[in-house]
Amino acid sequence: MTGLSRTLLDLASILSRERLEAVLNEAEVLGLTDHIPVHTLLERYPRRPGTVTLRAILDDARRARGVTRQELERRFARVLAATDLPRPHRNADVAVAGRFFEVDCLWRAQRLIVELDGGYVHGTWRTSERDRERDRLLIADGWRVIRVTWRQLRDDAPAVVADLRRMLRQ
Question: At what angle do helices 157-169 and 69-81 cross, to 10 degrees?
Fold first, then answer.
């Protein structure tokens, strides 16, 4: 019988990065832990097949969790500055169903809201519940809400811009 960390190390040698990320996500969702941390095994077996990929996934996740709200907002502003898209109102208030919500980015005329989701806050179950309730209320009131993560801005900014461009035209 193998522990979780050893199983992850073994899977890293045979799975694609995408599948390995899915396995790590599932372990996190299920709250699985091991008495030997994965990082310990990565140090112990630095040349084992798959360690580069596993280390990269774990490092990416750690960096994303450490991204502050300000860093995320600055990155999004830089992405937008390189385009001809109109600039949003930042940290704007929207009234819905007798409640006020502060949204990260707002294009009022197009009824479009972009929420910038970093792992620093949006990774807890309580925040996730609150975010989904807020999204539901905003959407029911005719707003379009999209959520953009640090990874999406870092790795796939052109796709984010293309989606925004389509949504702002509507």
Answer: 70
95 Cβ neighbours under 8 A, 6+ residues apart = 101
CB 131 within 8 A of CB 115: yes
Domain regions of the chain by residue span: 4-65, 69-169
pLDDT by residue (tens digit) across 60-112? Answer: 777 666 566 788 888 999 999 999 999 999 999 999 989 999 999 999 999 99
Per-residue tokens: 17:
């990065």
Q: Where are the alpha helices (DSSP H) in the chain?
A: 4-12, 17-29, 38-44, 51-65, 69-81, 119-122, 125-140, 150-155, 157-169
Read off the pTM: 0.66
- The single residue listed with the structure tokens 């999406």 is 152
Contacts of 18 (CB under 8 A, 6+ apart): none
The CATH superfamily label for domain 69-169 reads: VSR Endonuclease (3.40.960.10)
Cα separation of 166 and 160, whole Å?
10
SS3 at position 94: strand
- In the chain, what is the greatest distance between 2 CA atoms, to the nearest angstrom? 59
- C-alpha–C-alpha distance, residues 133 and 96, integer Å: 12
